[in-house]
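Work Package 3 (structural annotation) set out to generate three-dimensional models for the target panel prioritized at the project kickoff. During this period the team completed the workflow that converts sequence records into discrete structure tokens, so that structures can be stored uniformly alongside our sequence database. As a representative example, we reproduce one entry of 253 residues exactly as it appears in the project archive.
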Amino acid sequence: MNNLLQENDAVWVNKHREETGTCWGEVILNRPERKNAIVGPLGRGLAAGVAMLDADPEVQAIVLRGAGGSFCSGLDLAAFNDTPEPEWLPDFQRIWRDAHRALFDCATPVIGAMERYAINGGAALAIACDYLVVGEEAFLQVGEVQIGMAAPYNMAWLNLRHSEAVIAQVTLVGDRIKGPELLRLGLATTCVPDAQVETEAAALAKRLACFPAGTTSKIKRGMRARLGETADQWFDRHTNVAGPSVKPSSMKS
């Protein structure tokens, strides 16, 4: 496996060429020892990887997954509270915005392969995907309400894709929601046995890659056009509505 982002080991980016000549890409959150928890280098790598694959005219679909059989466990609180302070910490809010902007602006369809769990900040990444393949025992949790955090990026993506009734079920109590319920709510596109998540996501990417080049990107641009807002305008609006976290010392997901 070759990492196209040579300078960043927190995220791996691969390009797969099929025998038919079609191509699809893969962005892998690569901190398995920390359950792919979010830190500055992971945010930077995610933004760069998505932008790189989206700019490649050969790539017709992108799979977003985590290494080691887990999607993403949210913010790495140990790293955020490390001493000495990590070099990326003062700039983290910009880094995290860049990652979400890259996903918002990505015209290439993004397929999430959600294994085991996607929690808080990790849940926002899962919800950001155009398609989401989940395991039957995997769960998504937007649990910020339980710790006094505002969750603006989760709210921004949920408001983009889902009804108020669904958003309430996901956010107001903050419990874990397993694969079959994610499918029922429309948060997941497909729910499969846990061992088949990665294979199912790759199969969908290969299928999309077989369509006439650029077609899905044109359709996705049309989907975004209805908003009439840039990524920053969309995210700023939800950040402003959410206001500061109840616990000011906590980092937003």
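The radius of gyration is 17 Å.
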